[in-house]
Amino acid sequence: MLKHFFIFCMLLGSATIVCASQLPDYPFIHSVGNAGIYAQPDIGEISFEITVSDAESDKATQQAVAINADILALLAAQNIPAADVEIYEVQKKMRAVEGVDGKPATVICDIKQSIIINVRDLSKWEGLTTPLLGTNNLGNFDTSFERTDRHKINDELIAAAVKDAQHNGMLMVESFGKHLGAAMAISSGKLKDVSIALGLATGGLSSDDAPKGNPIRNFFAPAPLRFTQSVDVLFKIK
User: Which residues belong to the signal peptide in this entry (predicted)?
Assistant: First the structure.
């Protein structure tokens, strides 16, 4: 459930409140509105690396070429257009490996190549990722997901958060026999001057506001995305 937090404050005189010059000179209520939804992503991206090592440079190159061919065949089978695939330049390095038990040192050829696949139809996701994850010499997998209508979702959530703030403010003032007046200030972030003056905020991110990473990568079934919006509003009290 969405969490609401309200502050009701009647200003009786500037001399009665510290730093009152920062506060409105009329009776007001500070209301926070929140809105959030979970929505399934409709596009995704998977990235990985081809890594091959062999004492023979030609053999390592041939193996990398064969893996590339298998990946391209998989993409063709899934009808992934070439424009949605980024294949980076092959990186080839030679490294010396010391001999063991009196054996001479050898030179190993390491080949690495990065590939990024944009998946615009997630019904193809599992059919694409399952074979890739089962392919030898592929590693460093990563995934990300998004909604193509993110801006529309955010617009709708802001409108819902504003209504939530208005509803919450109305409930508070009516419990004191007052009426909610016009919105005098609104922000998609914290109204810091008011919040700090009232002891509601200290500036910076709180533990709830701090960005949190998602350590779980969804290689087989994309998880719903969480979208939230919050607004701070100062309403005049009638």
Answer: 1-20
